[in-house]
Structures are given as structure tokens and as C-alpha cells.
Amino acid sequence: MRLYEPLRPRLARFAAAMTNDREDARDLVAETTLAAYEQFNTLRDERAFLSWLFTIASRLYRKRGIREKYHGEYHEEQVRRMPDSGTSPEASADVALLYAALEKLPSEQREAVTLFEIADIPLKEISAIQGTTLSSVKSRVTRGRRKLAELLGAVDEGMEEAASPEASVEESPKNLLYMNAA
């Protein structure tokens, strides 16, 4: 539990962004936690716990996606069931729009952007989670940012800059998410 507790909020944000449903996100976190607990003896190096945990979450999410439980169109009701974070209605609306736009990204881009921007996972860890190269992850994050900016109608100059091909994905995560929250 000492390894898990510091990562629980990040895992919850990842699950919420991927499922776009509070109850489904809780289920995904619970299933991930249970699977991690049951498989803990397979973890060879505690330093790899972050990528190991998010790999489990990612695989469970994909497994559910195969059953088409979480794939579908964006519904207003799903946004209404999202937890109230105590933020302003404008910021909540921005988050709801972001989650709806995330649903429209290809799954690998959505996962990479969500892991980087929302779960605050380093690019190198994302490459381990997704089982791909670092350059592929950078490309997915960059393309995902660009597509999100397009979907969200990036009128904010800062958002356009964050989503541009020239913007470095090494920059601090979350720069795209909180552009309009201010």
C-alpha cells in the first residue's frame, strides 16, 4: 500500500478521463487495485511500480473496450454524473468538453494524452505502459494535443501554442488541460 497510496489520485484521474463516467472510473480503479494486489509478487522492481500499475489499468480498460462497455457516443448524462470537484461551473464545463473531445481521439492517442496530461506520468513510463518507443509516445501526445485543440476550437493563443507541432511534450504536463480554467 505504501507504493499505491501516492499514485491513487493519479490513477483515479486517469480512469475518470478514460471512462468519462464516475461509476465506471471507480470500477476501473477498484479492478486495477485488486489485480495489482493479486499480482504484486510478479513485480520485480519497486521502482517500476508506476508503469506496472498503469499498465494494468490500461489493459483492463482495453479489455473493457473490447466488450464495448465504455466506447460510444458522448452523452450529457455522463458529464452530469461526474464528481463535483468544487471548481467553478465554467471550469467544470471546460473539463466536460475536454473529456468529450478526448473520447473522439484514437485510443492510443487518448491514452497517451490522458496518461501525460491528466495522470502526470512521464513520457518514458508511458512508453513502457503502451509497449512502444519514446518517439511514438511523443508523437501520440503531440498529435493528440493538436486534435484536441482542433476539436475544442483553440481560440486561446496559449492553447494553440501548446497544441502546435513545435510545442515540446517535455514541457510540464497539464499545460493543455488548464489553459482555459483561468
Account of the 3D structure:
The termini are far apart. This protein has helices spanning 8-19, 22-38, 49-66, 76-80, 89-103, 107-118, 123-130, 134-151, 157-163. Helix content is 62%, strand content 0%. With 182 residues, it is mainly alpha-helical. Helix 1 (8-19) packs across helix 2, helix 2 packs across helix 3 (49-66) and helix 6 crosses helix 8 (134-151). It has a single domain, classed as Butyryl-CoA Dehydrogenase, subunit A, domain 3 (Up-down Bundle).
Helix amount: 55-70%
Which structural class fits the helix and strand makeup?
A: mainly alpha
**Which overall shape is indicated by the principal axes computed on the Cα atoms?**
globular
Average pLDDT confidence is 77
Strand residue content: under 5%
Number of strands: 0
Mind summarizing the main beta sheet? none
What is the terminal-to-terminal distance?
35 Å
Total DSSP helices: 9
Output the keywords.
182 residues, mainly alpha, Butyryl-CoA Dehydrogenase, subunit A, domain 3, globular, disordered C terminus
Secondary structure: elements and pairs:
Blueprint: H1 8-19, H2 22-38, H3 49-66, H4 76-80, H5 89-103, H6 107-118, H7 123-130, H8 134-151, H9 157-163
Give a brief rundown of this model.
The protein is mostly helical and 182 residues long. It has helices spanning 8-19, 22-38, 49-66, 76-80, 89-103, 107-118, 123-130, 134-151, 157-163. The protein has a single domain (5-163), classed as Butyryl-CoA Dehydrogenase, subunit A, domain 3 (Up-down Bundle), CATH 1.20.140.
